Amino acid sequence: MLLILGVALIFFGPRKLPQISRQIGKSLAEFRKASEDFKSTWAREVALEVESEPEHSIWPQDIQTPNPIWAPSSAVSLFTAH
């Protein structure tokens, strides 16, 4: 941290450093606020989505699939002897 502070002091000078520090602090505060707003909005949307889903199981064994042996008659005739 001291190394970064020293480099910043050399590049920006002692007069600009407090202003730059304030701007960085304000920017970080705005970023954190926006991040928290996004998190709360995301959590609220997920909660609404979960509440609106029908109450049935979505496990693979509960999903009804068509008979895997079924094939269209045109495909079956290709493989049968005439």
Structure write-up:
There is one protein chain. The chain is an all-alpha fold and 82 residues long. Helix content is 71%, strand content 0%.
Characterize this entry briefly.
With 82 residues, this protein is mainly α. The termini are far apart.
Key features?
single chain; 82 residues; mainly alpha; 71% helix; 0% strand; rod-shaped
**Low-pLDDT runs:** none
What kind of sheet is the major sheet?
A: none
Number of DSSP-assigned strands: 0
Tell the overall outline: rod-shaped
SSE inventory with pairings:
Layout: H1 2-52, H2 73-79
